[in-house]
Amino acid sequence: LEFRRVLFRSDENKRVLVVANFSSKEAQIRLDGSVKKVLLSNTNDAEKSTVSVGASELKLESCEVLVVLVK
To answer: Taking burial as the number of CB atoms within 10 A of a residue's CB, which of 17, 27, 43, 44 is the most buried?
Structure first.
């Protein structure tokens, strides 16, 4: 069973992506852009997240939720 949710919000200055993987397996999400900064992670401190700045793909573990600023 795959269950993912993606919410994208933007204005003139910022693009924020909220992505959640509620499945029992790792999920990969391709981005239209790249990660500028990890704002929040439920599995890691955002400062120590395994998501790389500049990445154009996110890999989320089971039950992982990320909020990222996108370029």
So the answer is: 17
Give bridge partners of residue 35 from the DSSP assignment. Answer: 70
Is the pLDDT at 49 greater than 80? The verdict is no
What is residue 14's DSSP assignment?
A: -
**Token pair 């700045």 in the structure block, residue:** 53
Q: Which residues pair with 4 in a beta bridge?
A: 21
Tens digits of residue pLDDT in 1-46: 567 888 889 999 999 999 999 999 988 889 988 999 999 989 876 6
Asked whether the whole model's pTM tops 0.85, one would answer: no
SS in 3 state form for 27-55? Answer: EEEECCCCEEEEEEECCCCHHHCCCCCCC
- Rounded-to-integer distance, Cα 9 and Cα 61, Å: 23
